[in-house]
Amino acid sequence: MATNYAASVIVDCAHYREGERSDEEPLSIPEAAERLHEDGFVWIGLHDPTDEEMSEVAQEFDLAPLAVEDARERHQRPKLEDYGDDWFLVLKAARYDEAREEVEFGEIQIFVGASYAVVVRQGDVEDLRGARKRLEEHPELMHEGPVAVVWAIMDKVVDDYEPVIDGIEADIDEVERAIFEEGEDQTQRIYFLRRELARFYRAVHPLLAALQPFERQSVQHVSDAMRPYFRDVADHLRRLDEEIAMQRDLLDGALNANLGQITVRQNDIVRKVSGWAAIGILPTLIASIYGMNFDHMPELHWLLGYPFALALMATLSFSLWRFLRRWHWL
Amino acid sequence: MATNYAASVIVDCAHYREGERSDEEPLSIPEAAERLHEDGFVWIGLHDPTDEEMSEVAQEFDLAPLAVEDARERHQRPKLEDYGDDWFLVLKAARYDEAREEVEFGEIQIFVGASYAVVVRQGDVEDLRGARKRLEEHPELMHEGPVAVVWAIMDKVVDDYEPVIDGIEADIDEVERAIFEEGEDQTQRIYFLRRELARFYRAVHPLLAALQPFERQSVQHVSDAMRPYFRDVADHLRRLDEEIAMQRDLLDGALNANLGQITVRQNDIVRKVSGWAAIGILPTLIASIYGMNFDHMPELHWLLGYPFALALMATLSFSLWRFLRRWHWL
Amino acid sequence: MATNYAASVIVDCAHYREGERSDEEPLSIPEAAERLHEDGFVWIGLHDPTDEEMSEVAQEFDLAPLAVEDARERHQRPKLEDYGDDWFLVLKAARYDEAREEVEFGEIQIFVGASYAVVVRQGDVEDLRGARKRLEEHPELMHEGPVAVVWAIMDKVVDDYEPVIDGIEADIDEVERAIFEEGEDQTQRIYFLRRELARFYRAVHPLLAALQPFERQSVQHVSDAMRPYFRDVADHLRRLDEEIAMQRDLLDGALNANLGQITVRQNDIVRKVSGWAAIGILPTLIASIYGMNFDHMPELHWLLGYPFALALMATLSFSLWRFLRRWHWL
Amino acid sequence: MATNYAASVIVDCAHYREGERSDEEPLSIPEAAERLHEDGFVWIGLHDPTDEEMSEVAQEFDLAPLAVEDARERHQRPKLEDYGDDWFLVLKAARYDEAREEVEFGEIQIFVGASYAVVVRQGDVEDLRGARKRLEEHPELMHEGPVAVVWAIMDKVVDDYEPVIDGIEADIDEVERAIFEEGEDQTQRIYFLRRELARFYRAVHPLLAALQPFERQSVQHVSDAMRPYFRDVADHLRRLDEEIAMQRDLLDGALNANLGQITVRQNDIVRKVSGWAAIGILPTLIASIYGMNFDHMPELHWLLGYPFALALMATLSFSLWRFLRRWHWL
Amino acid sequence: MATNYAASVIVDCAHYREGERSDEEPLSIPEAAERLHEDGFVWIGLHDPTDEEMSEVAQEFDLAPLAVEDARERHQRPKLEDYGDDWFLVLKAARYDEAREEVEFGEIQIFVGASYAVVVRQGDVEDLRGARKRLEEHPELMHEGPVAVVWAIMDKVVDDYEPVIDGIEADIDEVERAIFEEGEDQTQRIYFLRRELARFYRAVHPLLAALQPFERQSVQHVSDAMRPYFRDVADHLRRLDEEIAMQRDLLDGALNANLGQITVRQNDIVRKVSGWAAIGILPTLIASIYGMNFDHMPELHWLLGYPFALALMATLSFSLWRFLRRWHWL
Predict the structure, then answer these.
(1) Are E115 and E42 in contact (CB under 8 A)?
(2) Strand-strand pairing, B41-47 and B20-21
(3) Engineered SS bond to B143: which of A209, B19, B260, C321, CB 3.0-4.6 Å?
(4) Rounded to whole angstroms, how far apart are CA atoms A275 and A257?
C-alpha cells in the first residue's frame, strides 16, 4: 500500500524510452515501479524523504538494503559502492555563504540500476532540475540510460563547486589587501577560511576516487561513449582539487606574512614610542638643570633667562625630532 | 584438568548452530571445546584473563602459539595476523575522558578459526555484549560463522570511536572560542589535545590496513555476503581517519593563530603603556619648568599661577589622551 | 559556406608532404580541408579564433566535439586527451613580467589527427612561428607527421619557461640581498613571489603527466624515432619542475629568515633605546639631587658648583656611553 | 696458517646439529671451518675483529668478498644484501645514555650461508649472548639453521631498542613539565632530543626494508615455519617506527609550545614592568608639583604639608597598584 | 681530417683487451677509432672539449646525435638515457668550498657503447685518473668492458660526495655551538647552508633513479658479476641521500631554535633594562621629594640631611638591586 508522500518530497519522477520522456506529468512511485520491466529507465528525484518514504521506494525498486541503510545516515563521505548489478553513489553539494564566510553542504545520494536512477537530495542544497532539463534536451545522452543521469548530476554538482572556489578566492584577495595595504591583523579570518577550505576539500577530494572507475576501466552499464563525459567531469574536479591545494598554501603563506607584518609593526611602534620619549626627556633634563639650587648660576639672573630656557628646550626637541625623522626612526 | 576461572573472566561462552544459540546458559570452557567438532561455532568472550586461564583456552581450542604469546603482551598495534587456517586480530578500543581531555585505550584480541571465535578484552574498555546481542538478533549474519563475530566487534569498536572524535571536536571549538573571543593563551591545551589526537590516530589508522583483506580480496572463511559489511566498517573508519587528519590540521592552525593573537596583544600592550607614559610625562615636564629657579618668571608671581599650572597640566594630558584615542593608539 | 576569418586569426596554414611544404602561401581553411585526403598532413595555426571560426575548422577537419567544447573554455589545466584516432592537448605558455613580478599565462590547444594538426593559441602569448620555422628546416622530423608539430610546439613552450624561472631566481637573489645586506622587511614580496611560483607550478607540473604517454609507451601515430625527442622535452620539464620546488623551498626559508632578522633587529632597537634612555636619566638624577632644598649642601655654595655639576653630568653620561659601547649594547 | 686471535675477539664458536650444540667448549676457527661440510651449521660470534682476523674467517668460510669489504667500513646503514647463496646483513644496535641524552650505536654484521652464521659485533654494544642462550634452549628453532640465528639476533637488537624509546619518552615528559609547569626555556634540549631521534630513526627505519624479504616472499634457506617469527620482529619494529614518528611530532609541537610560552611570558614581563613604572611615576609627578616655585601655593605653608604630600604619594601609588591588580595587569 | 686537440683536452685515451691496457702511451682519437672493431674496448677521457673537438669524437665513435647535443648544454640533471645499443649518462661531481661554505659542481658525461666509453669532464672538477688507475689494477673488472668504466667513475664521484657531507656537517656543528653556547644569531648562515644542501640534493638524488637500472634489472652490456658493484655504489648514495635529508631537518630545527633563543634573549634584555630603570628611578624620586618647597620639612634643616638623603638613595637602590638579583630578574 502506497505511502502518502509529502508534496515536496517527489521532485520529479519520469520514465524515459530511447532518450525521450514517456509522460509529461510526473509519475507516482507505484506507476514508476511498473515501468521498470519495460524498455528504458525510470528517473526519480526525491528531496528530504522520511524514512518510511525511503523504505517504500527501496521496496518498489528493490534497492540494495545496505545502500538504503547507508543513505539513512547523513554526513557520509563521497563514495561509489558497487553492489554487483547496482551501485550507490554519494556526492556532496556545496554552496558558499559569502556573508558568514562558510561553506554549506548538502548530500546527494544516487541509487543506480539497469533500469532506474533514484536521486535523493538531502538538506538545503541547490535544486538539480537543471541537470534533468539539460539531459532531456540531449536525447542521445539520455539514451545511454541511468549512467547519463549520474553524469548529469555529477556535472551539475561539480559545476556548483566553482562559485565556492571563487568566493574563497575573493576572500583571500581581501585578506591579502588587509594585510599588506591596511596592515590589519587577519589571524582569525585566515584561521576560519582555512577551516572552511579543509571542509570543502573533504567533499571534493574523495569524489575523485569515486570517479575513477567511470573514467578508467569499465563499470557495468557504462558505454564507451559516456567515458569522455566522465573524464571531463574528473578533469574539472582535478582542477578544483589543485586550486584548493593552492588556496590552502596561499592561506598558510598569508598567516606567516600576517605574523611577519605584525612583528614589523611592533618594531615601528617601539621605535616611534622611544623616539617621542627621547624628545620628551630632553626638555625635562633642561628644566631639572635650571631647577638646581647653586648659588652661582648666571643664567638664572638674566632678564631673558626664562624665555631662553624655554627656547632651548624647544630647539633641542625640534632638532632631535628632525634628526630622528631623517634617520627614518620616526 | 580445568582451571577455576575467576567469576568475571568469562563474559559469555556459547555455541551457535545455523545462526541460533544452542544453549541459553553460558558453557564452560571444556564444554565449549567439545562442541568444536559439531556443526556451527563457539564464541567465547573473556575479560582480562590471567596467563594460566589464557593458556588453558589456547590448549583446548588449539590456538596458534605465536598468537597466544603475542596476546600476552599488551600495547600492540592494531593488526591482522594470518596463520593459514586461523587468524589473530588486535583492535584498540577507545574512550574519551572529557574531564582530563585524554583518550583512554583498551585492547581487544580476537582469535578466529573455522569453528571458534575467542574474543579477549584487555583493560577497562567498553563492554562488547552489545555486539553479541545485535548478532543474536540477526541469525542470517550469525550464520556466516566466526567472521560475523569479527565484523560485529569491529563495528562496535569503530562506532565507539565516534564519541572520541566528537569530544575532541568540542574541545577544539572551546579552544577556538578561547583564542578568538576571550583572547586567552591556549598553547598548553592545544599541545596536549594534539598529543591525544596522535595517540588516537595510532589506534585508528593501522586498523585500516588490517581491514583491507576483509574488504578486497577474499580471506579464508569470509563469504561474499559479508564483504559489504566489512566495507561499511572500513568506510566509517576512513571517515574517522580523515576527521582526525582535519582536526590535527585545525590544531596546528590554532597554535599558529594563538601565537599570532599573543603577538597582536603584545603590540596592544606596548602601545597602551607608552600612551599612558606620554600622558604622565607631560605634567611632569610642566612641573619641572615651574621648578626652575630663574629670577624672572612672571607666572610664578601670579596670584593664580599655581592653579593655572595645574589646569595646564590637566588640559594637556586630557588633550593628548583624546588625540591618542582618536588615532586608536589607546 | 566559409566564414570570413579576421585577418589576424589564421597565423599560417600549410600542407606538408614528405617533410616538405607543398605551397609557399598560406592555404585557406577549405583548401586545407581538401588536402586532408592526400598524402602528408595539414598544419594550421590559429590565434584567438571566435567561436564561429572555431566551429568551421572543427567541422571541416571533423574534430572531436568534446575536445572542441573543451577548447572553448579557457583556464584549463595542461592535459592530453586521447579520443582514439585523435588527441587533444592543452599547454600553458608563460611569460614573466619583471616589473610587476608576475607570471602571465596563455593557452595553447592542439588538435591532432592522422593527417592534421590544428594549433590554437589563446591570449597574449609568445608567437609559435619559431616552432614552424625550425621544423621546416628539418624535413626528416616534419616527415614524422603531426606528432612532430606537437613536439616542436612543446619544445618551444618549455624553452620559454626557462626565462620565467630565471626571472624568479633573480628576484629571489634580490630578496636575499635585501634581507641579509640591507635588513629590509621582505614579507610582502616573498608572499607574492611564492604565489606566482605556485601558479607557475600549476602550468608546469601537470604537463609532465601529459608527456608520459609520448615518452614511455607508444601513443598512436608516434614512431620510435620521435620518442627520444619527447624524452628530451620531458627531461627539460623535470629539471624546471625541480627548480620550482627548490625556489619554493628557498622562499619558505627566506620568509623564516626574514622573520628572524626582524626579531633580531627588534632586539637591537630595544637595546639601543634603553641604552640611550639610561644615558639620559643619569644627568636628570644629578640635576634632581642639586635641586634638593637641604640647608647644608656645600656644593651649592661653591663658586664653580654649577660648572662642576654640568661637567659631572657630561662625564657620567659619556662614561656610560663608552661602557655600553664596549659591551656591544649600543 | 691460523692467526692468533686476541682473547676477546671470539665470543663463542660452536657447531649445531639437529638443533643441539655439538661441543660444550668453543671451537677454534679452523676447527669450525672443518665442520662446514658436516650436517648442521656453525655459529661464530666475533667482537671487534682486526682486519687480519676478519680476513682469515672470510677465507676459511669463503665469505663473499664484497660483503667482507663492506663489513670493514663501519657506519653503514642497516641493509640486507643477497649474494645468491649467501646473504650479508647489517644491523644497528642502540643504547640510550640517559645522562648525556644521547643514543649510542654499535654495528652488528651477519654473514649467512647454508652452513654458517658469522656474527660480527662492532663497537661498544650490548652483548648478544642472550640470543645464543635463548636459541640453545629452543632446539626446534635452532634446527631451522643459520636463519634462526638471524632471527634471534634481530629479535634481541629490536628488543633493545625499546629502552631507547622509553628513555626518550621520559625526557619528553620532562620537557613538557619544564615548559608548562616551570616555564623554563627548553629550546636547546628539544633541539638535541630531536637530533637523537633522527639518528635513531636512521637505525630503525631502513631495517624494516631489510626485514621485508624474510617476512613476505621466500628468501633462500628460510622455511615457512620461521616466517611468523620474522613477522613478529617486523611488527615490533613497525610499532617502534610509529612511536619515533609520534615522538618527533611531539617534539615539534613542544618547540612551538615552548616559543608560545616564551612569548606569553614576554607579555607578562612588559605588563608588569610598565605597571610598576606607572606606580613609580605618580609620586615623582607629585614631588615635582610641590617643587614648583610659585609664590602662592597654600599647601607649602601648611604645618602638615610635607606629611600630607608623602601620604598623597603613598595613597595614589597604592590605589593604582590595587587597580592594576584587580585588572590582572600585575 | 683530424682536429688539433688542445693539449689539455684529451686526458687519456687507451684500448683495453682482456682487462689489460694494449699500449702504454695515450692513443690519438683516430687511432682509437680504428681499434673499435678489434676485441676489447676503448676508453677516452676528455676535459672541457670545444664543440668541434666533441663533434669529431662523436663522428669517429658514431655517438647518438641526440646525446651529443644534450652533452653540449651544461647544467643538466643527473640521468641515464638509453639509446638501445648505447647509453648516455650524466653525473654531477661536487666539491665543498669550506671558506665560502658553498658546494661547487662539475659535470661528467659518459657515452657508453659495446666497445667504447667516452668520458667527458666539464668544468673545474676533481680529476678522474684515480678511477682509471684503480681499474687498471683490477683486470678482472676491466675485463667486464665499458660498464666497468661507468662503475669506476660513479664510485669515484660518489666517494667524492663524502667530504661535501662532512664539510656541511662540520658547519652545522659550528652553527649549533654558535646558537647554544655563544648565543649568536645564525639566521643568515643557516639560510645559505640550507640552500647549498638543496643544490647538493639536486645532484645526488636523481642519480639514485639513474642507478636503478644497473642495480635491478639487467641493462644491456651489464653482466651479473658487475651488479653487486653497482648495488654498492647505490647503497652508498642512499646513505648520503638520507644524511642530506637529516642535515636538512637539523638545519630546519636549528632555524627554529635560533629564533627561540633570540626571543629568549629579548626577554632577558627587557627584564634587565627595566630592572636597571627601576634602580635608577628610585633615587630620582627621593631627590624630587627633597626638592619640594614645603616650609616645614625637618630633614632639610638637619646638619647631615644631605648625606642622609644620598645614603638613602644608595641604600634603596642597592636593596632593590639585591632583591631583583635574588629573583633572577637581573
Answers:
(1) yes
(2) unpaired
(3) B19
(4) 27
At a CB cut-off of 8 Å and minimum separation 6, what does E134 contact?
E152, E156
Cell numbers standing for residue D124: 661498544
Q: Is A293 on the interface with C (CB under 8 A)?
A: yes
CA separation, residue E70 to residues A74, B6, C226, D311 (Å): 58, 79, 16, 91
Grid coordinates standing for A103?
561553506
CA distance between the termini of chain A:
85
Whether the model clears a pTM of 0.90, i.e. scores above it, the answer is no
Mean of pLDDT values over B227-232: 87
**ipTM rounded to 2 decimals:** 0.82
Helix, strand or coil for residue E13?
strand
Residue B311 neighbours by CB under 8 Å, 6+ apart: none
Residue of E73, E68, E34 lying closest to E54 (CA atoms):
E68
E292 in contact with chain C, both atoms CB, cutoff 8 A: yes
Question: Where do the DSSP E strands lie in chain E?
Answer: 10-17, 20-21, 41-47, 79-83, 86-97, 102-112, 116-122
Nearest to C164 by CA among C108, C105, C90: C105
Sheet holding D102-112, edge to edge: D20-21, D10-17, D41-47, D116-122, D102-112, D86-97, D79-83
Residue located via cell numbers 641493509? D79
Residue contact C290–A293, C-beta within 8 A: yes
Residue to substitute from E240, E279, E282, E289, interface D, most D β-carbons within 10 A? E289
Check if C271 contacts A (Cβ < 8 Å).
Answer: no
Sequence-distant (≥ 6) Cβ neighbours of residue B156 within 8 angstroms: B126, B128, B130, B131, B134
Best CA proximity match to A214, nearest among A144, A313, A276: A144
Confidence of residue A127 (pLDDT cuts 50, 70, 90): confident
Q: What is the pLDDT of residues D283-301, one digit of tens each?
A: 999 999 999 998 888 889 9
Q: Mapping DSSP to helix (H, G, I), strand (E, B) and coil, where does residue E100 land? A: coil
Suggest the residue from A134, A256, A317, A324 to mutate for an interface test with chain C (most C CBs closer than 10 A). Answer: A256
Span C278-326, pLDDT tens digits: 888 889 899 999 999 988 888 899 989 899 999 999 999 999 999 999 9
Using the predicted structure, report yes or no on whether residue A12 has a pLDDT greater than 70: yes
Question: C182, C190, C192, C269: which to substitute to probe chain A, counting the most A Cβ within 10 Å?
Answer: C269
Closest CA to E175 of E185, E166, E167: E185
Residue D269 contacts residue D187 (beta carbons within 8 Å): no
Q: Could you give phi then psi for residue E97, rounded to 5 degrees?
A: -90, 100
Single out the residue of D77, D87, D92 nearest to residue D122, CA to CA: D92
pLDDT at A166: 94
**CB proximity list for A4: less than 8 A, separation 6 or greater:** none
Cα distances (angstroms) measured from residue A221 to each of A84, A145, D103: 11, 8, 61
Looking at residue C319, its amino acid is S
> Whose grid coordinates read 699500449?
E23
Please name the residues between 59 and 88 in chain C that touch chain A, using a CB distance below 8 Å: 64, 66, 70, 76-77, 79, 81, 83
Q: How far apart are CA B32 and CA D180, in angstroms?
A: 54
Q: Could you give the CA distance from residue E107 to residue A94 in angstroms, rounded to a whole number?
A: 53
- C-alpha cell of residue C272: 639601543
Local confidence band at C1 (pLDDT 50, 70, 90 cut-offs):
very low
Q: Residues of D numbered 123-182 whose beta carbons fall under 8 angstroms of chain E's beta carbons: which are they?
A: none
Pinpoint the alpha helices (H) of chain C. 29-35, 51-61, 65-72, 129-136, 139-142, 146-159, 161-180, 187-215, 227-289, 298-301, 305-326
Q: What is the dihedral of CA D6, D10, D11, D14, to 10 degrees?
A: -150
